[in-house]
Amino acid sequence: MISFLSVMVGCATLTPEKIAKRVDTMNDFDLCLASSAEMDKFTFALPDEIVTAAKERIASKKIDCTSKQDEIVRFLVKSLRDQEKRNEQFRTHFGFGFMRGW
Fold it and tell me: What SS3 class is residue 68?
Protein backbone atom coordinates (compact mmCIF):
# COMPACT_ATOMS: atom_id res chain seq x y z
CA MET A 1 0.00 0.00 0.00
CA ILE A 2 2.79 2.43 0.82
CA SER A 3 4.54 1.85 -2.49
CA PHE A 4 1.29 2.44 -4.38
CA LEU A 5 0.78 5.66 -2.46
CA SER A 6 4.32 6.81 -3.15
CA VAL A 7 3.84 6.08 -6.87
CA MET A 8 0.62 8.10 -6.91
CA VAL A 9 2.26 11.03 -5.11
CA GLY A 10 5.25 10.81 -7.45
CA CYS A 11 2.97 10.99 -10.50
CA ALA A 12 1.01 13.88 -9.09
CA THR A 13 3.98 16.11 -8.32
CA LEU A 14 4.83 18.81 -10.79
CA THR A 15 8.40 18.80 -11.94
CA PRO A 16 9.98 21.96 -13.32
CA GLU A 17 9.88 20.33 -16.76
CA LYS A 18 6.12 19.68 -16.50
CA ILE A 19 5.53 23.25 -15.34
CA ALA A 20 7.60 24.70 -18.17
CA LYS A 21 5.85 22.49 -20.72
CA ARG A 22 2.42 23.55 -19.46
CA VAL A 23 3.30 27.25 -19.49
CA ASP A 24 4.92 26.94 -22.95
CA THR A 25 1.58 25.74 -24.37
CA MET A 26 -0.31 28.75 -22.97
CA ASN A 27 -1.12 31.72 -25.18
CA ASP A 28 -1.32 35.29 -23.84
CA PHE A 29 -4.98 34.92 -22.83
CA ASP A 30 -4.26 31.66 -20.98
CA LEU A 31 -1.37 33.26 -19.13
CA CYS A 32 -3.46 36.25 -18.09
CA LEU A 33 -6.36 34.01 -17.05
CA ALA A 34 -3.98 31.90 -14.98
CA SER A 35 -2.50 35.00 -13.39
CA SER A 36 -5.75 36.78 -12.54
CA ALA A 37 -8.25 33.95 -11.96
CA GLU A 38 -5.84 31.11 -11.16
CA MET A 39 -7.65 28.78 -13.54
CA ASP A 40 -7.40 27.45 -17.06
CA LYS A 41 -9.83 27.56 -20.01
CA PHE A 42 -11.58 24.46 -18.68
CA THR A 43 -12.25 26.36 -15.42
CA PHE A 44 -10.06 24.00 -13.46
CA ALA A 45 -8.08 25.52 -10.62
CA LEU A 46 -4.40 25.65 -11.42
CA PRO A 47 -1.69 24.62 -8.98
CA ASP A 48 0.24 27.46 -7.38
CA GLU A 49 3.40 26.46 -9.26
CA ILE A 50 1.70 26.97 -12.64
CA VAL A 51 0.19 30.30 -11.56
CA THR A 52 3.59 31.52 -10.39
CA ALA A 53 5.24 30.37 -13.62
CA ALA A 54 2.51 32.11 -15.65
CA LYS A 55 3.10 35.35 -13.76
CA GLU A 56 6.83 35.06 -14.39
CA ARG A 57 6.22 34.44 -18.11
CA ILE A 58 3.92 37.48 -18.28
CA ALA A 59 6.65 39.62 -16.72
CA SER A 60 9.39 38.24 -18.98
CA LYS A 61 7.32 38.64 -22.18
CA LYS A 62 5.95 42.00 -20.98
CA ILE A 63 2.37 40.96 -21.71
CA ASP A 64 -0.26 43.60 -20.96
CA CYS A 65 -3.02 41.69 -19.16
CA THR A 66 -5.05 44.82 -18.53
CA SER A 67 -6.04 44.78 -22.20
CA LYS A 68 -7.39 41.26 -21.74
CA GLN A 69 -9.49 41.93 -18.62
CA ASP A 70 -12.75 42.37 -20.55
CA GLU A 71 -12.18 39.10 -22.38
CA ILE A 72 -11.38 37.34 -19.09
CA VAL A 73 -14.55 38.69 -17.45
CA ARG A 74 -16.67 37.59 -20.44
CA PHE A 75 -15.09 34.15 -20.29
CA LEU A 76 -15.73 33.80 -16.55
CA VAL A 77 -19.34 34.99 -16.84
CA LYS A 78 -20.00 32.55 -19.70
CA SER A 79 -18.39 29.73 -17.72
CA LEU A 80 -20.54 30.54 -14.70
CA ARG A 81 -23.71 30.57 -16.81
CA ASP A 82 -22.78 27.25 -18.41
CA GLN A 83 -22.19 25.74 -14.97
CA GLU A 84 -25.55 27.04 -13.73
CA LYS A 85 -27.28 25.43 -16.74
CA ARG A 86 -25.55 22.11 -16.04
CA ASN A 87 -26.55 22.30 -12.37
CA GLU A 88 -30.16 23.08 -13.27
CA GLN A 89 -30.28 20.19 -15.75
CA PHE A 90 -28.85 17.86 -13.13
CA ARG A 91 -31.34 19.00 -10.47
CA THR A 92 -34.38 18.66 -12.72
CA HIS A 93 -33.26 15.37 -14.22
CA PHE A 94 -31.99 13.55 -11.13
CA GLY A 95 -32.75 15.42 -7.93
CA PHE A 96 -36.49 15.68 -7.66
CA GLY A 97 -37.37 12.39 -9.32
CA PHE A 98 -35.38 10.46 -6.75
CA MET A 99 -36.80 12.38 -3.82
CA ARG A 100 -40.41 11.85 -4.94
CA GLY A 101 -40.15 8.15 -4.10
CA TRP A 102 -39.59 8.87 -0.38
Answer: helix
Do residues 63 and 28 lie in contact, with contact meaning Cβ atoms separated by under 8 Å? yes
Q: State whether residue 39 is helix, strand or coil.
A: strand
Sign of CA dihedral 23, 27, 31, 36: negative
Rounded distance between C-alpha atoms, residue 13 and residue 22, angstroms: 13
pLDDT digits (tens, 9 = 90+) for 30-80: 999 999 999 998 878 999 999 999 999 999 999 999 999 999 999 999 999
- What are 77-95's pLDDT values in tens digits? 999 999 999 888 887 766 5
Residues 14/49, Cβ–Cβ less than 8 Å: yes
Q: Are 79 and 43 in contact (CB under 8 A)?
A: yes
Residue 38, sorted as left (phi over 0), alpha (psi -120 to 50) or beta, turns out to be left
CA dist., res. 57 & res. 31, Å (int): 8
